[in-house]
């Protein structure tokens, strides 16, 4: 039986993936280059019994997404750079209150209003550190249109499994690119649904410290609990206890750190014998892969490590790779954000070199190749 094939834009694939995962609520505010996600959600969600609402701004959109999730609906919002900045306070709230939700950020060139229709990858660090205080976060970055579909499903799965907001970090290139996509069958991809509560209503604790990820009861299911952005005890009520605060913060971090084998997603291409390794993410993966093939034709052993779970960062894997290569190159559309993480993880095992653009243009395969040839030529001369 032939699978259904569709020509999809990246933003469109995001909505299809969200619906496949069971999204039933979307709140957003239109902003380039993410607007198609809201438009398509407004058209498709009502057809499956879901709800779409355009809020007055990005702050309210994030708040509505949190509220809908508390009622048991798989919920998503989408935005771009300036809107992502506005969502940060409520992203922190969702992190501390452990409310599952998906936040899509289709990155554009910034800061401020920047270049609204041009590609960039400048929100990488904001995805991790944008909201104040220590907090857990998962952020995924797709490289193709089909990848966008799959990682949107993964984002919903992770958000429900670990009771945490998950950021889907697209970029303008992936969001607006159109490709032929072979649509997965109904049961082909794993879809993780919220656990049902089978606890006596008098014994239920929404933030039970005896487990890394306590089950969450939906509002209106008859379980009484409190939700707050303050530090809280097992019942959800605010506390000033330093002991309770440390227990809560340790559990929030451990539920991610102890599940890295499940959360970390990456791809390796010709890395087994490589001497010149590229580490990249998002739209830069494809043109870098082309550069790897060309460099191989020139006799240079190049390889590519594409990071799809950008947070938490795959530190141990990068460190292991750095021990076996001469140089690591990090092509990215920013001033050098992933470069800093790669340098930290490599522990000076090899040279780490940035290949950067931050003017709204993409980095071409030829530019990647030229940089490698320049470095290799200099090292041979030495």
Automatic annotation (TrEMBL):
Occurrences of domain Pyruvate:ferredoxin oxidoreductase core (ranges): 276-368
Pfam families assigned to the protein according to its UniProt record, in alphabetical order: PFOR_II (PF17147), POR_N (PF01855)
Origin superkingdom: Bacteria
Keywords from the UniProt entry: Oxidoreductase
Sequence ranges assigned to domain Pyruvate flavodoxin/ferredoxin oxidoreductase pyrimidine binding in this UniProt record: 16-241
CDD domains: TPP_PYR_PFOR_IOR-alpha_like (cd07034)
InterPro entries per record: 2-oxoacid_oxidoreductase, PFOR_II, Pyrv_Fd/Flavodoxin_OxRdtase_N, THDP-binding, Transketo_C/PFOR_II
Alphabetized PANTHER family for the sequence: SUBUNIT OF PYRUVATE:FLAVODOXIN OXIDOREDUCTASE, SUBUNIT OF PYRUVATE:FLAVODOXIN OXIDOREDUCTASE-RELATED
Protein name: 2-oxoacid:acceptor oxidoreductase subunit alpha
UniProt source species: Paraclostridium tenue
Lineage, top ranks: Bacteria, Bacillati, Bacillota, Clostridia, Peptostreptococcales
